[in-house]
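JOB MANIFEST
job_type = single_chain_structure
chain_count = 1
residues = 751
[input]
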Amino acid sequence: MAALLPPINHPSSIRHRARRRLKDKIAKHMIGIGGISVIIAITLIFAYLLYVVIPLFIPGTIKKEADYALPHGSGTSTLHLAMEEQAEIAVRFTSDGQTTFFNTLDGKIISQQPLVLPHSSTITSFAAGTGASKIVAFGLSDGSAIVLKHEYDVSYPDNVRVITPRLSYPLGELPIQVDSSGRPLAKLAVQSNDEQATLVALTNDSRLLMTTLTIETSMMDDETTIETETRRLENAPGKISHLLLDKEQRVVYAATTAGTIARFDISDPETPILEEQVTAVSNENRIVRLEFLAGDISILVADSSGTVSQWFEVRDENNDQHLTKIRQFEMPKGVATLTPEYFRKGFMAIDETGKLNAFHTTSGRTVLKHQLDSPASHVAIAPRADAALIEDMAGKTHFLHIHNEHPEVSWSSIWGKVWYESYEKPDYVWQSSSASNDFESKFSLVPVAFGTIKAAFYAMMVAIPLAILGAIYTAYFMTPKMRSTIKPTIEIMEALPTVILGFLAGLWLAPLVEYYLPAVFSLVLLLPLAILTTSYLWNLLPKHIHSRVPDGWTAALLIPVIIFTVWLAFTLSHPLEIWAFGGDMRIWMKHELGIDFDQRNAMIVGIAMGFAVIPPIFTITEDAIFGVPKHLTIGSLALGATPWQTLTRVVLLTASPAIFSAVMIGFGRAVGETMIVLMATGNTPVMDFSIFQGLRTLSANIAVEMPESEVNGTHYRILFLAALVLFIFTFFFNTIAEVVRQRLRKKYSSL
């Protein structure tokens, strides 16, 4: 006989109810704490991403550190100002041939060294090489030139850094004869490296001469010999006002007062060639400044109207190079000085009222503005671009500290097309590093965002039909015994590490698909055809044969058909390739269709990542369909609907909120997937939706490049910006998905 329950007012019943209430409260609070903790964690992640990213968009600042009188006095004019890397010591070259090294903070003179000039000669011109080379040259009235180099020796006595400036003569202390006729050198350009030096000079009788010095060092006794050869650059334009020589000593630019720029190719010093002449400014204006941008690929042209334009060579459809205007920056009050940065694609310009503007060409924006007390005559930018030394018209020197860490970043450089140096047209490009300091950073997030969407799209194209249709059959048509085997098997697939899937996709699947490419395409047609044919033939068989197969097990009959079809497609792959595609389908696609084929492409990603996305979509969809109340199904069938009508008009509508959630969860998994796309694609950030081309996603880009990025550098923060974009992207689509799911749930909850 069953034991009687104690009365409701019995002490044991009261204690039992109290324990249950306590458990309910604990569970309620724990669930609440867990939910709030998740929200706090997500908020903190978002806040940290913002904390790292925001400095990218904070404007730069300029702070005046010191003002002092011009070192060595204002009695002679300044020819050139420069600073060493630490911005502690500066050098001033003056028209009397004096070189003055001084402290940048107080103007105290450290050392002075006069230029030893030949008898009865005077200084008629001056030129400076690239900032990094520290080469300068004085052109003389006797047609010769003296080349110097300002250098800085660093030592650490008693663990204190001491910088000692000095002058050296890399080509010897004797003047180099440029013009054999002894005419004064009116304009001069110079570049030098360990193997060669070049001087380009304009004489006062308008001849353009080029002197090449070949430097050879003996391996036996380190003795250096210099061979000198001078040639005239023919067809030079008249009235040359500016000369530029690139650091590779391959190109000479000569600008005239009328605004024409001539480009000479001197890569073969024995046969210099005038490549082209272009009109850089309009007729009513003239060129007032001509400078190289860092890297000596682009030139900056400032005209009398206050416009500074960037030009570089662009290759046309005939493979010919033409000097092309790319972009321009406006300074309405004119350009008094123009100084490029050493290693970044930025420059500083000061107008005739003393207003300082710092521009960056890649981002196409003004990054700094500052008003000086008076107009400037000379500007020096520190190699690290963290300081500037300015000489004004009043003979005073101003030392400024600059904080401008991320000038290359702007909305247009991240999300818009940018015309990068040596590119044929504006484009979206991600290329974050290079072996050269002349490299122009390319931080467009468009290719990697596009790759993320592309990878997710092809993965969902594979996963959605297989997962949803498989879930429908498993939940609605399959026998319970088979379902008890199939469902756990597919759910176990979700436990497979994605790194294993990526490894298999990259090293096994990609070569297999490339080798049997005709088979892969033929399977797209053969598998549906084989399944439909088998189903049709099955329906033609007598009913007594049908009765031998239990209900829900008929799908198992398709397994040998699918295996045989796959085997047949792979067996006929090579004969088909020989017969239809001339022996190589990839080459046929390239020549006949103009489609390139990469071994690791979006198709491989779609198959591999689709395989990873199928389990969550299948599981949620199958549970939702199987969980539709039975009375809805029975009622529909009782009213005369067929099983198919019941499925499409009752079951799927009732389960649609959960099915939609399953699709969005799968999409979120595909968007955030890292290892599969990292290993199964070529990791090429290209803008091509072709299924045969590779890609790079936001997550893979972060995984690949974060270890090599400099902490708090532009590259580092841009990668965090990519993570923030991925975060917002996922949050946006999940929010939309939840809104749609709630509306579907409300709409079909009455069924």
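[summary]
The longest helix spans residues 11-53.
The chain has a mean pLDDT of 89.
exit_status = 0
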